[in-house]
């Protein structure tokens, strides 16, 4: 019902829209979205492209189900599953090698923000991924800034706070490749809702959103997509 609500309200004009459900729903997603303007992807991937790794889902398997995107290094993966910067970098390489577009998440905790470590932390997270890539590969990645304290809490970073981090991530991307770095889409995630989306996405370096709670209601998700346009 959620997928058909989104498809019914989105014709592909304006902002680009994709959904990334938990892996067991990908086949259903493919069925419901094939031929529509909405693309889809996964929330995680294995660092291994092939081989015997029971329980893992490889990037090539995701391709089999029509995925274009994969979210990597979400703070819930880093925090609850011990994902290191190196593992996120390895997964990014695996995704790119299979032709998926990785959406690489970075973001600080409240304690890190209060200790003045936001920049150092986010830049180390992004740096580990950039170190694993050739400069030209920046053409094929998306970055998401998700302050952990803003995820699922209803507390959003102000547009100025988010823009400040996005600008520094942009600089880091441009140091790797001037042209592609300027064009990498940097999404903001963390309690983005219909009533704050336009203001956030009006910032020069906020190119879109990574939406959690508000994406579970088609009208809210559609309103955010419209704000992105
Ligand atoms: O983590 C998020 C998306 O992955 C953000 O979630 P919320 O939009 O619910 O804060």
From TrEMBL:
Enzyme Commission code(s) on record: 5.3.1.1
What positions does UniProt annotate as the active site of this protein?
74, 146
Question: What GO molecular-function term can you cite, just one?
Answer: triose-phosphate isomerase activity
- Biological process (GO), any one: gluconeogenesis
Q: What class of enzyme is it?
A: isomerase
Localization? Cytoplasm
Q: So what does this thing catalyse?
A: D-glyceraldehyde 3-phosphate = dihydroxyacetone phosphate
Pathway assignment: Carbohydrate metabolism; erythritol degradation; Carbohydrate degradation; glycolysis; D-glyceraldehyde 3-phosphate from glycerone phosphate: step 1/1; Carbohydrate biosynthesis; gluconeogenesis
Q: Which PANTHER family match?
A: TRIOSEPHOSPHATE ISOMERASE
Function of this protein?
Answer: Involved in the gluconeogenesis. Catalyzes stereospecifically the conversion of dihydroxyacetone phosphate (DHAP) to D-glyceraldehyde-3-phosphate (G3P).
Family classification: Belongs to the triosephosphate isomerase family.
Q: What name does this protein carry?
A: Triosephosphate isomerase
Q: Which organism is it from?
A: Zemynaea arenosa
Gene of this entry: tpiA
């Amino acid at each position: 019902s959620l997928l058909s609500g989104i498809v019914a309200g989105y014709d592909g004009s304006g902002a680009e829209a994709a959904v990334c459900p938990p892996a067991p729903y990908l086949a259903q997603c493919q069925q419901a979205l094939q031929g529509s303007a909405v693309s889809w992807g996964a929330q995680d991937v294995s660092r291994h492209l092939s081989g015997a790794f029971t329980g893992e889902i490889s990037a090539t398997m995701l391709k089999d189900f029509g995925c274009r995107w994969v979210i990597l290094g979400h703070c819930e993966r880093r925090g609850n599953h011990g994902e290191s910067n190196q593992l996120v970098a390895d997964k990014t390489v695996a995704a790119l090698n299979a032709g998926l577009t990785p959406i690489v998440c970075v973001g600080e905790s409240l304690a890190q923000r209060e200790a003045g470590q936001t920049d150092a932390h986010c830049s180390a997270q992004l740096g580990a991924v950039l170190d694993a890539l050739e400069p030209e590969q920046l053409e094929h990645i998306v970055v998401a800034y998700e302050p952990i304290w803003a995820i699922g809490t209803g507390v959003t970073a102000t547009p100025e706070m988010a823009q400040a981090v996005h600008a520094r991530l942009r600089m880091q991307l441009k140091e790797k490749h001037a042209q592609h770095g300027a064009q990498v889409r940097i999404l903001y995630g963390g309690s983005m809702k219909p009533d704050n989306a336009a203001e956030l996405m009006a910032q020069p370096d906020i190119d879109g959103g990574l939406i959690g709670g508000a994406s579970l209601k088609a009208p809210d998700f559609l309103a955010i997509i419209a704000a992105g346009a």
